[in-house]
Amino acid sequence: MDKASQPGKVWLVGVGPGDPELVTVKAVRVLGAVDVWLVDDLVTAEIHAYAGASTCIEPVGKRGGRCSTSQQEILERMLAHALAGRTVARVKGGDPLLFGRGGEEAEFLRHHGIEVEVLNGITSGAAAAQALGIALTHRDCGHGVSFVTAHTARDDSPDWRSLVAGGTTLVIYMGMSRLAAIRDALQEAGMRREMPVAVVMNASRPDQCNWTGTLANLTDALAAGLTSPAIIIVGGVVAHAQATEARSEWHAAPVTCRAETSRLLVS
Question: Which of 32, 45, 114, 257 is most enclosed, with most CB atoms within 10 A?
């Protein structure tokens, strides 16, 4: 049947934190078979190797503080391609349904009669924890985990007081431009200044950089050269991972980076 005679299908594909070997087998198969990719900025160049020879790749980057493609334009492009009978992969870093706007995109497409399938990816919060050997829900010091965005749709703040009262490990996304505000809000909500904190930039990638310290000196991560995209992990599990690795009492560690270029950046 001619493509234009029926709508194409859209896949919302999470390709994980950046390491191409962390992409699922099913995602690789779909990425190589579709007609069009609409791809985010945070998707690494290595992931593009999974595209088919005839796949059209359209960048639709969304980055805070930079020239970006509007969400409405992204929705309209997906719909236009699907109505033209093309199969589409909306390619996203991390997981589409965890701060990836996958829910709103799926609702929009289904409202217009387009078939949608979500392919989950490893979220950067999990990859950041793995990079430092942090068990986010270690039974000795973490009865739960809360994934939080510091940048909400209404541009307001999370309910930090409730999060602190809950006592779970906090994994904070999109917070690097608000480190001082996050530090102050958590302290005002009752979190102790000495709470261990880790910041991981570019988790799983060759230029990954890590910083560990305490809530009180959280903004030192910026002075050390870490920027977005980065994940902030707050909780006793950070100290537990450090102590386990060092076989000694936890202490704030210096910045560590994978690539020599990153070492130069933070030296």
Answer: 257
